[in-house]
Amino acid sequence: MANLSPIILLLALFSLIYGNAIASHHVYRNLQTQQSSDSSSNQPYRTAYHFQPPKNWINDPNGPMRYKGLYHLFYQYNPKGSVWGNIVWAHSVSKDLVNWIPLDAAIFPSQPSDINGCWSGSATMLPGGKPVILYTGIDPNNHQVQNLAFPKNLSDPFLREWIKSPKNPLMAPTVANKINSTSFRDPTTAWKGKDGYWRVLIGNKVNSVGRAVLYKSKDFVNWVEAKQPLHSAQGTGMWECPDFFPVLNNGPINVGLDTSVDGDHVRHVLKVSLDDKKHDYYLIGTYDASQDVFTPDNSQPVLRYDYGKYYASKTIFDDGKNRRVLFGWVNESSSQNDDIKKGWSGIHTIPRSIWLHKSGKQLIQWPVQEIENLRVNPVNWPTRLLKGGELLQVNGITAVQADVEISFQVREFQKAEVLKNWADPQILCGMKGAGVKGGIGPFGLLVLASKDLQESTAVFFRIFRYQNKNLVLMCSDQSRSSLNKENDMTPFGTFVDVDPLHENLSLRTLIDHSVVESFGGEGKACITSRVYPTLAINEKAQLYAFNNGTSSVRITRLSAWSMKKANINGN
Amino acid sequence: MANLKTTTTLFFVLFLIAMTSLPSITLCDENLIESTCRKTPNFNLCVQSLKAFPGSASADVRGLGLIMVKVMQSKANDAINKIRELQRSGPSPALTSCASKYNAIVVGDIPEANEAFSKGMPKFAENGANDAANEATFCENGFNGRSPLTQQNNAMRDVAAITAAIARQLL
């Protein structure tokens, strides 16, 4: 082994110097990269700048981390097909969170404690800059257990190979601890307390009580379960992919904190993926480090990261740019048959910076700034009125692969429709789609639209008067997105905590063939959706600004860019 | 007073009878089949499908889910056989489309549901089962009202819906 290290070092240096050129020739173990004959015409739904491998099924982002200046992303991957199964940890690296180089699978079944599957987990940076991974393995009895893996060679900046602890599993359901063996998974990034003990959370449930079970360890190998979970909640079912991290209270925007930071200047966020609802929820609250208990702020309802398709998300502290970055999985809204035919299923969203809004009431998310390096051919409109009934085409950009930012100023508040009783925003969006005329709104964007408008996805605002205040509804309406009715075209919606009386209503939408990621109110409300037009594909897709309300709104700003294709996993 | 004593004795005797004839293990697990099936869209079909399989009497909810996946497999095979038979006498785009959809069920949904139930990831069992029900519906819709596969599609859709409901109970 000692003889090999200079060679490995040399190879690593070689790879670094030649960067993308060599690394992009890496292929997946047992797999072939996408055929170059797969043109955009027979793969109209593949994204140009979203994370996905050349083919097959992906789900949860795993163990994201930053090491020796490179970002690492692992992910749940099925090497054998387009549905979930045979799961391994696939692996990619990036300098900029936008362009990704594929590497061989890092973690795959190889010991009893993971012989039946290598499920989700997280990375923790140990003192001395040593990354380790805790992940859920499925053992020979099909029980869920937690395992430790660490890099075989720390001087390989690509961290290609990983070794598993011979002591695995380190945490397991037993008769003594009474942990449900099919409800014990997804270890978080660990944080270190002032007592020098590491703490980690594992998702769990007892009957229908969802729980974040806490384990503590001094040496990261011997773990002891705490007397009580960090937090739990009745009737919520299994808590998958928990995440627990500090955020600056009333701090500057887009600044993050290392996961172990604690103090008076800090609030804590507990996030879980609810198996039952298929959504990611978070709570802002207080962490009592001495009792290892999290108490959410009562005053706020439980919020979601994203009101569309978004699951199994996970954050890391990016110590390169001092920010916290969020990674999430977006599954397909197409049928399994379509997924098998196209040969792939699942993408990740653009990584998002995440921080606490100065009000302390919610988190803000915004696509990482690096994605803006893909912007080309800017189109800027002078401020103009958008009258009721108007439809304005945005020309000069590739509408199927674009980044659009638009701001609206609303004046005629007396024309707002009155909402007598509070309604679920998603249901409201379903009942009042883009085609339903309103008082103020609907106004917004028609994306991935066909020239004859038979197909379009509408992302828009509608303003109501509710209890003597202005209430802003944001919708992503997929109901007319495709003539192929075998897709799930459920509309999504949420209220945006912005008062249009005092500030403009902003919308940013990232459009990428079959994914539409929208951010309202400068990141207060996020909605991600998947659409599969049959007409509005490639150069035939169009982009419009529209206003289907009776009152005018003023477009104070429209900036749109074509997006260059990113280099993602050898695409 | 005499009445009270008689009533109490009667009650006590009945109580004793009830206690000594406690349900056997078999009866307990039949109750699990029934209580599980009560939370599905088709109680009768659910009970009938499960009871037809040996081992259902002692299965837990996860085991019942796995049995229903076997039932789904059998219904998918019925549909595929019928499609092949129909294709021999007169192929059509609708039949070709149905063949593709049932292939997705057999190659995608069923293995996914199997692995998901076995390893404790019920949301993917629900996913696979829901998709199977959808594929059967899409197959049926492809004939615009004059489907030769209605019986098979309905059977597929019904057992898939039951399977999804069982998965839901494990979330």
TrEMBL record, chain A:
Organism expressing this protein natively: Arachis hypogaea
Domain Glycosyl hydrolase family 32 N-terminal, residue spans: 50-367
Subcellular location: Membrane; Vacuole lumen
Protein name as catalogued: Acid beta-fructofuranosidase
Record-linked Gene3D superfamilies: Exo-inulinase, domain 1 (2.60.120.560), Glycosyl hydrolase domain, family 43 (2.115.10.20)
GO cellular component terms given for this protein: membrane; vacuolar lumen
Signal peptide region: 1-19
Keyword Hydrolase (UniProt): yes
Membrane topology designation: Single-pass type II membrane protein
Single GO term (MF): beta-fructofuranosidase activity
Taxonomic superkingdom: Eukaryota
UniProt keyword Transmembrane helix present: yes
Pfam families in UniProt: Glyco_hydro_32C (PF08244), Glyco_hydro_32N (PF00251)
From TrEMBL, chain B:
Protein name per UniProt: Pectinesterase inhibitor domain-containing protein
Family as reported in the entry's similarity comment: Belongs to the PMEI family.
Domain Pectinesterase inhibitor: 28-166
UniProt keyword annotations, A-Z: Disulfide bond, Signal
UniProt GO MF annotations: enzyme inhibitor activity
Signal peptide: 1-28
Species: Arachis hypogaea
Pfam families tied to this protein: PMEI
SUPFAM superfamilies linked: Plant invertase/pectin methylesterase inhibitor
NCBIfam families documented for this protein: PME_inhib
Origin superkingdom: Eukaryota
